Amino acid sequence: MEISDPEIDQLLYQVKNRYGYDFTNYSQASIKRRVIRFCEIHRIENYFDLKHHLINDHILFTDFVLQVTVNITEMFRDPSFFKSVKENLFPHLATYPHCKIWHAGCSTGEEAYSMAIMLEESNLMKTTIYATDINSEVLMQAREGTYSMKLMKDYTSNYIKSGGNNSFSDYYTAHYNMAIINAGLKKNIVFSQHNLVSDGSFNEFNFIVCRNVLIYFNKDLQERVLNLFYESLVPLGYLGLGSKETLQFSSLRDKFEVIDKKEKIYRRIE
Amino acid sequence: MKNTKTIYNLIVVGGSNGGMDAFMKILSGLSPDFHIPIAFVLHQQRGIQTLLPDILSRHTNLIVNEPLDKEQICDGHVYIAPSDYHLLIEPDGTFSYSYSEPINFSRPSIDILFETAAESFGNQVVGILLTGANNDGAKGLFKIQNKGGFCIVQSPKTARSQEMPQSAIGMGCDKHIIDLDQIAIYLNTLNMDNILNHPEQNG
Description:
The complex is a heterodimer. By secondary structure, chain A is of the alpha/beta class. In chain A, 42% of the residues lie in helices and 20% in strands. Chain A has helices at 5-19, 28-41, 47-56, 58-68, 79-93, 110-121, 136-144, 152-161, 183-186, 219-232, and strands at residues 99-104, 127-133, 146-148, 172-175, 178-181, 189-193, 205-210, 233-241, 256-260, 265-268. Chain A has a 7-stranded mixed sheet with strand order 6-2-1-7-8-10-9. A 3-stranded antiparallel sheet of chain A has the order 3-5-4. In chain A, helix 1 (5-19) runs parallel beside helix 3 (47-56) and helix 3 (47-56) crosses helix 4. The mean pLDDT of chain A is 96. By secondary structure, chain B is α/β, with parallel strands linked by helices. Chain B contains 7 helices and 9 strands, in the order βαβαββββαβαβαβαα. Chain B has helices spanning 19-28, 52-57, 110-121, 138-146, 163-170, 180-197, 199-202, and strands spanning 10-15, 38-42, 63-65, 77-80, 86-89, 95-98, 125-129, 150-154, 177-178. In chain B, helix 1 (19-28) links the parallel strand 1 and strand 2. The longest helix of chain B has 18 residues, at 180-197. Chain B is globular and about 40 Å long. The model of chain B has no long low-confidence stretch (mean pLDDT 92). Classes of the chains: A alpha/beta, B alpha/beta.
């Protein structure tokens, strides 16, 4: 199926007016592919049908939000990032009586649980993780903390490369083909809905983790979100981005210093 | 004199099994004044720390790097897709990334690079599909052809694995089926045409 760029623009504009979800500043090539994929899944064959169904069918729209946003994630993705966090950030975070970490765009929660494990092993127990996402559906899965057993082999390998001290299997219980994350890891995590496109700051954080979310946004929206992060960080607070994301092209680059260039870890200067 | 020749602003290349050697061969054959930017997707095992830019740098004077998200595509660069992300071309001439599902069991997928290049750059794209043992890239190359771009398929007889070029030929991308050692010569000609036709742009 083919959709032209003006048609995509029009569709996203109408979605914004109808539902309040604003995808108009998502990366153009990327969002277009997601919309076409959504059409293929639902066997929608032309632009007119797509527009009609989407505007009139609220349930279909819920799935639209789920499909056009990319929710794929894993535990300890990029072990070198977690290793760097443990070595470079945790000693500083340990000097605060209480720490707040924000996982923005947490999807189904794997990264927030990975961080919770690292914090526990480093005895940084007085830390609260706020894990947010635009999607209420994925947040439900995140709160459940139940993942396919098949993935645990890869996650175990990631955990070891991240510098984990224990046995990864201590952190979940196997139940048939599912792995249930230990309840103890959940008690310091608050999952809630937050839309980076439209919502404002809701707390002050020592560390904001937002990895592989900005890649889906155009430069204007990236700028808005990075401003939001800047305002939501305490002075000398840290920001961790995905391995291909950068502050280099943003006007905010002078307000941060680089802590780890390769792992894209930055620190708010004052 | 008004020129009517197309100017090519982007070359996209895809390869799988044997693709690394083939691509090195092409890079080594490019003329010293080669300026058209090149983006390359090679299927590789996920999670492996990529040394591709370092290795490829030894075979060319062009600047070889993995682009950052929203990096502007610049002349004289060879951009290598990192492992485990899809690489996309945006209409404003920047790169973007996606961590969406693998396509044809591949992330990065050649189809995604080729299709977004065709969507964003239309007939200014040169697409090259090299050796490989699956059919990723054929659909994307067909799209480049449909949008008026220039399509090159490595001749199966010079390919380590024939399935990938064969799929593209099967879809109708059969105008320029070229032996591996001739591809660089073709590209040098396109590069020269760009310079002759648009001296003000490429001075």
